[in-house]
Design brief:
Blueprint: H1 3-18, H2 23-33, H3 43-59, H4 61-72, H5 76-88, H6 90-105, H7 110-125, H8 132-135, H9 143-155, H10 163-173, H11 178-187, H12 189-207, H13 214-241, H14 245-264
C-alpha cells in the first residue's frame, strides 16, 4: 500500500466514522473495488481509530469537561449520564465476546456489506416517520433508553450498518431530541473507540508498521482526525436542519451500486 492509498483510507475513515454511512463498510468496499490490500498488522487500524477518537474528544470537549467537573462534585445529573454512557456499551461488549470472530469474517462479503448499507439507508429514512409527539419535546436519557441505544450500537458492529446512524435513529425513536441524540451517540462511541484501541495496542506494538512508511502512517492519523472533526461539524449542521435523510438515500444508492458492480465483475 503506497502513501496515496494510505491517505485515501485515512480520509474515508475520518469522513465515514461519524457521518451515518458506515466507515467499516466503506473501507471494505474501497479496498475491494480499488484493489487496495489492507496492510498487515494492527498498527494502521489503531492509529486511524486514534485519530477519529481525538476528533470526538476535541469536538465535545466542553461537554466532557462539564461531565468531569460534575463527577468530581458528585452531581447527580452527571453521575446518571455517565452511568448511562457506560451502560450503553454493554450490548456491544457482549456481542463482541460472543460473536467477534464471526463478525470479523463478515467483512470479506461484499453482498453482506451492500445489504447492510441498504438497511442503514432504511434506518435513516425511518426518521421521516417520527410522530409529532416525539418531535415536540425531548425525553431524558434513562437506563433503558441507554441500553436500547446500546443495542443499536451492537448491531452496527456488522460492516455496512452505520454506528452513528443506527444509534442516533434509535435515540430519536426513544424520545430524545436531535441534538441530544447526536451528542449521546458520539459520547458513547468514546469507550468503544478507546476499548478497541486498547485491545489492539499490544498487537500493534508486536507487528510494528508492517512495512509502512512511519511519516505516512502519522500523516494518515492526522488526516483522519482533521476530516473526522469536520465531518462532525457537518453532521451537526445537517441534524439541526433535519436533513439526515440525504444520507439514507446515499446508503441505498451505494448498497445497490456495490451489488451491481460485484455481479458485473464475476
Amino acid at each position: 500500500m503506497n502513501t496515496f492509498h494510505l491517505l485515501i483510507l485515512a480520509a474515508v475513515q475520518g469522513l465515514t466514522e461519524f457521518l451515518p454511512v458506515s466507515s467499516s463498510g466503506h473501507l471494505a468496499l474501497f479496498q475491494e473495488f480499488l484493489g487496495m490490500e489492507s496492510p498487515e498488522g494492527a498498527t494502521l487500524e489503531v492509529l486511524l481509530h486514534g485519530g477519529t477518537l481525538i476528533s470526538v474528544l476535541v469536538f465535545y470537549r466542553e461537554k466532557l469537561l462539564s461531565l468531569c467537573q460534575g463527577l468530581i462534585k458528585r452531581d447527580k445529573g452527571s453521575l446518571l449520564y455517565c452511568a448511562a454512557l457506560l451502560l450503553s456499551c454493554l450490548p456491544a461488549m457482549v456481542v463482541y465476546v460472543l460473536a467477534g470472530k464471526a463478525i470479523e469474517k463478515s467483512f470479506t462479503s461484499v453482498f453482506l456489506i451492500a445489504g447492510c448499507l441498504i438497511v442503514t439507508g432504511a434506518i435513516l429514512l425511518s426518521q421521516q416517520f417520527l410522530p409529532s409527539s416525539l418531535l415536540s419535546r425531548s425525553q431524558p436519557m434513562t437506563w433503558w433508553r441507554a441500553l436500547l441505544t446500546g443495542a443499536a450500537q451492537a448491531v452496527a458492529m456488522l460492516p455496512g450498518i452505520s454506528r452513528s446512524g443506527s444509534t442516533i435513529t434509535a435515540a430519536r425513536w426513544l424520545g430524545l431530541g436531535g441534538a441530544e441524540a447526536m451528542e449521546f451517540s458520539f459520547l458513547m462511541s468514546i469507550p468503544i473507540l478507546g476499548g478497541g484501541i486498547i485491545l489492539k495496542i499490544g498487537e500493534a506494538c508486536h507487528d510494528g508498521l508492517g512495512g509502512l512508511n512511519p511519516l505516512s502512517v502519522i500523516l494518515a492519523a492526522a488526516v483522519a482526525a482533521v476530516i473526522g472533526y469536520l465531518a462532525l461539524k457537518l453532521l451537526k449542521l445537517l441534524q439541526l436542519l433535519g436533513r439526515l435523510q440525504y444520507f439514507g438515500y446515499y446508503c441505498l444508492g451505494i448498497g445497490v451500486l456495490a451489488i451491481v458492480l460485484k455481479l458485473s465483475l464475476r
